Amino acid sequence: MMFKTNKITWRSPSNIAIVKYWGKQGKQIPMNPSLSFTLDHCHTETSVSWELNSGGGIQFLYDGQPHPTFAEKVKKYISGLQLPWMDDLALVIDSKNNFPHSAGIASSASAMSALALCLVSLEEELNGKGLDICQFRTRASELARLGSGSACRSVYPEASLWGQTDEVPYSSDLFGIDWSGDLAPEFKEVSDWIFIVSASEKSVSSTAGHKLMEHHIYREGRIAQARQNLNHLIPALRKGDWVSFIQICEEEALSLHGLMMSSRPSYVLLEPDSLRIIHAVRQFREQSGLPVTFTIDAGPNIHLLFESKYESAVQEFVSRELEDFIWPGKIIKDKMGKGPERIS
Predict the structure, then answer these.
(1) How many other CB atoms are found less than 10 A from the CB of residue 282?
(2) Where residue 1 falls among pLDDT bands split at 50, 70, 90?
(3) What is the pLDDT of residues 76-115, one digit of tens each?
(4) Would you tell me which of 52, 111, 159, 253 could form a disulfide with 44, CB atoms 3.0–4.6 Å apart?
(5) What is the CB neighbour count within 10 angstroms for residue 248?
(6) Are residues 198 and 299 in the same domain?
(7) Domain total for the chain?
(8) 77 near 90, Cβ under 8 Å?
């Protein structure tokens, strides 16, 4: 399938949820609201090339090569959007990550947000009508949500909140909102060092994990816990309160994996090294008095969060206590990022 010069490219980051979204209902509606930090380094770059009046069709490539599993998901996603302007278009979609996919570092968030951003840009071009930045992000967030719930938060810089909550009048289950304006200076320069315990594909996908929440015995308790934690997290982020942030962050991380272990059927994604790193981080915090904490997505890899000004002390700790993770491929030194970028 050959194209001329019609091509749009977006680079979109992953994000790390502090209050986790786990479980959904209807068409990608979250069981509870969530709040995440947008990352900087971990990203997906997606290009969409198109041709008009060609009878349609979608070809998907992962880093330039066919990937049947991803292709099927992408085709199903785009078909489900039911965008009328897509009928006469043929697309070639080429996507690549700079970090491991399907390993519990929210690769679906960066991937689906990058694709959604490309589709909104394409929609603008074909319609000949530009959107302002708020409209554009909202539209991209809503389309991204339909592909991956957490992806709706990746279209915003620094931090995003997704899910209707009485504490935030303009919040919505349909799209994420920008939360960067509600961060105190103490939460504007956050580092996220990701310890790659395993880069292998997870034994149980997040999609399957969300489904198991439908009849989970702790379902209602989890919804109440997440809402309560979000209500406490909002003022903590506004005040620069790292003590409260640490308590919420770690409770949410461990609750997420507790829900997995108490599902029917149950499953465990944490590895022995995951627990070793958790214990080491807590011991380092107690001994140093520095506000460092951890969180975990739906996988075995551990995110170490701290204010960037403490980087030298954290580096010394990692080199001393976790020296087997200082090698390339074993740690990703990321930080809070400025959001997606369109690549010319």
Answers:
(1) 15
(2) very low
(3) 999 999 998 888 889 999 999 988 776 567 689 999 999 9
(4) 111
(5) 23
(6) yes
(7) 2
(8) no
